[in-house]
Amino acid sequence: MVSKQEHKRASYWSSVWRRFKSNKMAFAGLIFIIIITIVAIFTPWIAPYGYDETNYAHTFEKPSWQFIWGTDDLGRDVFSRNLYAMRNALLIGFGSQAIVIVVGVIIGAIAGFRGGTVDTVLMRIVDIMYAFPTFLFNVILVTALGRGIHIILLAIGITGWAGTARLVRGMVMSLRNADFVEAARALGAKEFYIIRKYVLPNMLGPIIVSIAFGIPNAIWMESGLALVGMGVRPPMPSWGNMISAGAGYIMAFPHMVIFPALLFALTLLAFTYVGDGLRDAMSPKGEV
Amino acid sequence: MEELLVVNNLKTHFHRYEGVVKAVDGISYQLHYGETLTIVGESGSGKTVSALSLLGLIRKNGRVVDGEAIFEGRDLLKLNREELRQIRGKDISMVFQDPMTSLNPIMKVGIQIMEPLVWHKLMQGKEARERAIELLRVVGIPDYQVRVWDYPFEFSGGMRQRVMIAMALACNPKLIIADEPTTALDVTVRAQILNLMQDMKEEFGLSIILITHDVALAMNFSDSIMVMYAGKVAEYAPITEFIKNPLHPYSQGLIDSTIDIEAEEGSIKPIPGAPPNPLDLPSGCKFHPRCGYAQDICREVEPESREVGDNHRVACHLAERGET
């Protein structure tokens, strides 16, 4: 007989983790995200210079030991500004997704569980949100509310929850009448217990995946706003406004564009790979 | 013998856009303690709905419009939701058709077996865990002490159905409703599950309502049989009586269409036609368009269910006259 300690069987999440780890790109992406997140948290202590620390004696400098990624038109350290931009990007990414998840899950769950008129009304609101051009909506919101970083993440969150609400509603509707939910009901489970232990945990996977894909989208959206002058207000750096400011000097001083663009691309790539990896790990096709 | 469950004139109707579907339209039966009743019929004949109606598990657009179901002196159809919930799983449990989808995929089977005990406040913690392990042993899961902490996807179909039976047994119910418990299983596993249910019935003194479309299975397994057609009872009889003397032409058709291992080639006679559209039922006897013996009266007058022998009821004009 095998004792309980010896018997280490894979739980659902540990088998998800095992499959995720075996996906090299996704795992590398996760490591990258963990590193940049730690760096972002400690940016004010790590960055050698402040993001708005100008030094007119050292404008447009190429990378050197003093300024490892060079300086920009006002003599600010590109490396430090990149760190702050990363911090802002992650703040916008995670923050807006937090709003998206809270609003989307609540609206979607209410629509899915209540059904009927409530469902119809909520889903028409979702349709309107969907039909409205997201970028334009963001520009309007930012124009109306201001260009602070919290306003921007709020705007991206407000415009982004419709898809999540639809996803959650669909899952609730199919899970609510799933065979195993019916079986639990037939054996005397209370409705609230069914929601808590049967419906919500089974939705977790797709929601996590949608977060993983939502974060790079939000970062991307901020950069788009920055390009039309609606992103984070300078001198606060974001990859969007650094790239658009540096674009003017790209022939003469490419370091002003290359470093933020590279970091930006790597971050988006990392999140996308992690999202892909999570999706594959959570829906194991062909594994019994 | 005393009666555990008496159902009288149960009617469950579904309101659909196109009209009213009378899924169950006035069925009556009795179930004694320790007895097995099999409900047989084609798809859509109302077998499952008749069972779900008892437990208040009909979807929103359906409603029990009439009838009574006396279970140990209480009318199930008049209980409120909370009272019904307390009966579900505790006094009456269900085993479902598809074991592959009837277990929560992200919960260990042991926890799922414990759940009914906790829901009905019968046991908690360690006691419930031991009970779950014991139940897995009873339903014949090898290595049960280890397997109890596995997830459903680590079990085969037959094993999962054993787990479902363990869940149904957890609270020592008096009645188990098994809704086509073997339909989704391999033929070889089917016999095992049926034997298990038979053993459980004897060991725990259960009564069973078995829902199936397999007449041969019913004849081997049950004490009495109820043949349903288009929401009505075509024939209701003790099983020995049914085997000797099936009176309704539909019952005879069902028996003739089963495969006997000794049957000669070409001796299987399928019932012609298909079950009627529930929104557009034929006049008179619902079975007359498919019935080889149909006469004028069958097309016009709906036959009443009549007692033709000891506990043997048939709804057929001809059976009454002894012509079939």
Task: Tell me about this structure.
The complex is a heterodimer of chains A (288) and B (324). By secondary structure, chain A is mainly alpha-helical. Helix content of chain A is 72%, strand content 0%. Chain A has helices at residues 12-22, 24-41, 43-46, 78-114, 116-131, 134-145, 149-176, 179-186, 191-227, 239-246, 255-282. In chain A, helix 9 packs antiparallel against helix 11 (255-282). In chain B, helix 3 (109-119) runs parallel beside helix 6. With 324 residues, chain B is an alpha/beta fold. Chain B has a domain at 3-80 and 218-321: Rossmann fold (3-Layer(aba) Sandwich). The chains are: A mainly alpha (288), B alpha/beta (324). At the A-B interface, helix 8 and helix 9 of A face helix 2, helix 3 and helix 6 of B.
Which percent band covers the strand fraction of chain A? Answer: under 5%
Provide the CATH superfamily of the domain at 3-80 and 218-321 in chain B.
Answer: P-loop containing nucleotide triphosphate hydrolases
The CATH topology of chain A, please? Answer: MetI-like fold
Unreliable spans of chain B are none
Order of helices and strands of chain B: EEEHEEHEHHHHEHEHEEHHHEEH
Helix content percent band of chain B = 25-40%
CATH architecture of chain A, by name, is Orthogonal Bundle
Supply the CATH class of chain A: Mainly Alpha
